[in-house]
Design a protein that fits this description.
Structural class: alpha+beta
Radius of gyration: 14 Å
Number of strands: 6
Order of helices and strands: EEHEEHHEHE
CATH topology: Alpha-Beta Plaits
Strand content: 25-35%
Number of domains: 1
CATH class: Alpha Beta
Shape: globular
Length: 132
């Protein structure tokens, strides 16, 4: 398992808005385009207003990817999601996704990234990606 954590902004608050995703890919053919788009999204993340930190986990053998992002509030996250290239990724992921792809939104008092908590919350996600 490969893991990456990037601290963008250490601002302190009483509550943080978090998003965790599970992104399994259907075909090996989709891995390279997915990774290239992920690099573009990372550049977008580093410029995003209101982002505190984000993390990526990868299990290449299973073509599976997880993310967590921690935001100052929901509004900042919504602005990021609507921007490019993230909105392109949402459109393209519909054809790439394997069963189980999902995301969950939640609030955190600490703003820390807890992969176990995220995995547990993903069992009852905010949204599951439909297969195309």
């Amino acid at each position: 398992m490969v893991e990456k954590v990037v601290e963008v902004n250490g601002a302190a608050r009483d509550e943080y808005f978090c998003v965790a995703t599970f992104l399994p890919l259907r075909r090996w053919f989709d891995v390279i385009p997915f990774l290239l788009l992920t690099r573009r999204i990372e550049r977008q993340l580093k410029r995003a207003d209101g982002l505190l930190r984000y993390g990526l986990r990868t299990d290449f053998a299973k073509k599976s990817f997880w993310t967590i992002s921690v935001w100052l509030n929901e509004g900042y996250m919504r602005g990021f999601v609507m921007g490019e290239p993230h909105s392109e990724a949402v459109r393209r992921f519909r054809s790439w996704s394997a069963p189980g792809a999902a995301f969950v939104e939640y609030r955190s008092k600490t703003g820390k990234m807890d992969w176990r908590e995220a995995e547990a919350l993903l069992k009852t996600p905010t949204f599951r990606y439909p297969r195309s």
